[in-house]
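Forum: Protein Structure Q&A
Topic: Joint prediction for protein chains with partners

I've read a bunch of threads here and the consensus seems to be that you should model interacting components together rather than docking separate models afterwards. I'd like to see that in practice. Below is the full input, 817 residues plus whatever partners are listed. Could one of the regulars post the assembled result?
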Amino acid sequence: MSTETPTRTPPSTVVVASRGQRFTGAAVNYVDERTSISGLVRELGRKIFPDHWSFMLGEVALYSFVVILLTGTFLTFFYQPSMADVVYNGSYVPLKGLHMSAAMASSLDISFDIRGGLLMRQVHHWAALLFVASIGLHMLRVFFTGAFRKPREINWFIGFVLFILAMAEGFTGYSLPDDLLSGNGLRIIDGMVKGIPLVGSWISWLLFGGEFPGTHIVARLFTLHILLLPAILIAALGAHLLLMIINKHTQFAGPGRTNDNVVGVPIMPTFAAKAGGFFFIVFGALVLMGAFFTINPIWTYGPYDPSPVSAGTQPDWYIGFADGALRMMPPGLEFDVFGHPLSLNIMIPLLVLPIFLGLVAFYPFIEAWITGDKREHHIAERPRNAPTRTAIGAAGVTFYAVLWATASSDLIATHFHVSIEDVIHSMQLLVFVGPVVAYLLTKRITLGLQKKDREIALHGFESGRIVRLPGGEYIEVHEQLDEYERWRLVSYLDYEPLMVRPDERGRITVAQRARAGLSSWFFEDRISPPTTTEVEREHASQH
Amino acid sequence: MSKFSSKIRRVNSPGSQRKTGRRSPLATVALIVIGLMSTGGAYAMFSSTAAAETPAVTQTTIAAGEKLFAANCATCHGLSVQGSATGPSLIGVGAASVDFQVGTGRMPLAAGGPQAEKKPVQFTDSQTKELAAYIASLAPGPALPSSAYLKGDGDATKGAELFRINCAMCHNVAGAGGALTAGKYAPALSGVTGAHIYEAMVSGPQSMPVFNDLNITPQEKADIVTYLKYLDKNPSPGGVDLGNLGPVSEGLFIWIFGLGALVAVTVWIAAKAN
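Posted by a regular:
Agreed with the consensus. Here's the joint model:
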């Protein structure tokens, strides 16, 4: 309290606000009278954040993006997006006196001659890797808990766009130093573009402003990297967060957690404080990585020159799946059609990958159509309670993982002492077999888990305690769950396959038939949750 | 990336050309001459001419080398070094090749495997030199490099550039090694001595092409040695180099340690909430 308050003040006086408090109050009032922001703050502040750890993965993505913005701004102060030829004269000895682009030279200067530059570069790059990785994990969480269902389908799609934008940001950024590794990466992009029949060469010429590598590409990528892509990304991010607030979070089922409420901590003040702390943890982790672990040592890669190609040339991890798809293509897929080359080895990845990504992007709509489910869902499903979806997800993850692993086929070969041909052949097999096996296995496992849950909900745990009844009969005592635990196990929705129904004109369309078929595939194997009657009957018979 | 495999093939071809190229035309002539001499019982004459040209120390060295060879190598390479079903002829491979193969422990060959691997060295330095002197005495071939080229005081920039152009496609830009076809691989180059680097270039072991003095001059070889030594002596300015394996190790690192640690933190924070 204010020190000016006289000591003999009667005890009933109102508490006098300190000067600081009065200032804050006045300032807040000033702002609010002019912006009416208090309503928004109140709304936002009341937003409830569930307290399961998996809900914080999106935050990791958000915070690494903030770190990317901060460090990236620093980098733009010193980086020169130009392919003009210069002679490097900085302090890294094994490159001194070499001709290179201004982009490469300035990246080296950032690394060696600008105070804190190397740290900033490395933190920026690590943060970029973390950004995409955390988005990926966040997407998996949303997928496997069914949090993309109505009303959140659109936000899933926006999130997917963010994922693609993050990869595009990563790729354009990776190419900016104009070093040998990223140049090889661009060369592959060039090759892929040129592999498109008829228009490929034209597109490549437009992109590079002439024959690869030309003198424009770095400046163009820079514009994309710091202007266009971030602008779209931030807009999409804003929409994503806004929709998240409007739709509220999902939550796992539990006592008092229903489809109509959200249980957790409000953003103001608890969550905001925690989140602020968490931001600094993410920031700190990234700075530690940047300080102690080399990333993208462009100084060993050297300046780009179209002739050398290094062994072990890989893109950053998030582009790996595309590189893997290229590496996986068997030989003999190039044909000549009326004097035009037809490179199926490039066309197949160029077609398959967008289909795969398209399935990811539109999955919520596809599933909603198949299930015919138009209800709103605010309870996160446990993966086991949606066996088919979980199995589809596992198959997708396996497919992606195989492509990803193929991108490091050469390192797998050298590190496990196997021949690279064997690695590639195994991957070619796995890319087809793996997802199927993963699908079947996951479905079995999820159904098994569901069955176990049902057993436990109905009969409790086996306690291992054998009791002799007065009649001489021995029984094992089952430990019953309490109401709270049982709630978690039994509260999930039961679905049934859609029936084929004729439309108004009494016809059964092909689409209807397909839908019914898909729906029965989706739901034919299922374990229904025990009903209240079942539970009660069980208990009555046991006591 | 995917260009990689075609690149290997392209690079491999000079290697296979070399095998035939070295046999012709000079090598063939040399082989015939040697063959005639050894079959004609002219061996004594041959060694006496060698004795006439070389100092006595070398003469004993050669004799010691011959003994070592007969005991350790002849089973595969033949008693008269002419080769056998289990090992190639060593006529004309030169002292450099022997010093490299024996000095890095690749020879005597252990059984199996797609390529001769580095092993603990089985001979002392002087024994290796004796073997080298013996093989060199049979026919001319690339000699041991002069120590002037091995000091690592050449032009690192030039060496780095030459390395990127001539070696990186197999050994990786950072010299971290790389896969070749059929289980063969180009080894990582950290910790290899200057002499062995130089000898590898002049002798072209197995799938590696020969870089003769017209391809890469001795001074340029010295530059490459300088660069590789620079990499050895100077740890990565960016911190731990994660094996110099590029984006693959970086990707694994971010998933396992980066995201792994942060997920652990989220679990911890969420647990604190309850």
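Chain B is about 60% helix and 0% strand.
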